[in-house]
Amino acid sequence: MSEREPPDFAMQRAVEVLASIYERKRPARAPTLPPRAHAPIALFNERLSLVVGNSTRREVERELGIAYRYPSAGWYTYCLRITGERAFLSLFFSDAILSAAELYRPRAAQAPPLEARDCGSYRLVPGEIELGMQILALPEYYTSIPAPSGGSYEQIFATGFPGGSALVMGSDGTIERLAVYVDSSTAQSE
Fold first, then answer.
1. Backbone torsions φ then ψ of 25, nearest 5 degrees
2. Residue 33, phi then psi, degrees to nearest 5
């Protein structure tokens, strides 16, 4: 004779009801992650390619010279002339390896009056994304993210790539800032 008790039909029915509720509320498929670039994104010109996690401070200084320390400790900034306007190229290094690169037109009243130098135009590649372009021209792997209220830019687009992430920021449909950052899990401060 078996020592098992017959199933409690009320309990079995309760489990079936709960399972059916779970199945109805569960999403039909897992949410998809935003598209990512399949290759590293670099801030590039024909003389110097800035690749986070790879480019060295020595390479940068050999091409661009000594930088001005701005906007805060650890950042090294160069003033460039791009399409006739001043732009700042701000770089952050970790153990002499590039961790972050930002290209933007200075907006702050307290921005230093640095002399702009002709170094060629920088752009994010792949994608050939430059300051002054229309935001609508971004590749499909850039995803719109909410801009903070009261922030400097109305529109922000982001993507990830192996080893880092890239941001494109702008206002009135025009790109005003380009940035690439190394994956924060591998970054250390200088």
1. -85, -20
2. -75, 150
pLDDT along the chain (190 residues), means of 10: 57 63 60 72 94 96 94 93 91 96 89 88 94 91 89 92 94 95 64
User: Of how many residues is the chain composed?
Assistant: 190
What distance in Å separates the CA atoms of residue 135 and residue 170, rounded to the nearest whole number?
A: 7
Give how far Cα 117 sits from Cα of 4, 54, 144, 190, Å.
86, 25, 33, 27
DSSP letter string over 30-65? PPPPPP--SS--EEE-SS-EE-TTT-BHHHHHHHH-
pLDDT at 37: 85
Coil, strand or helix: which one is 176? strand
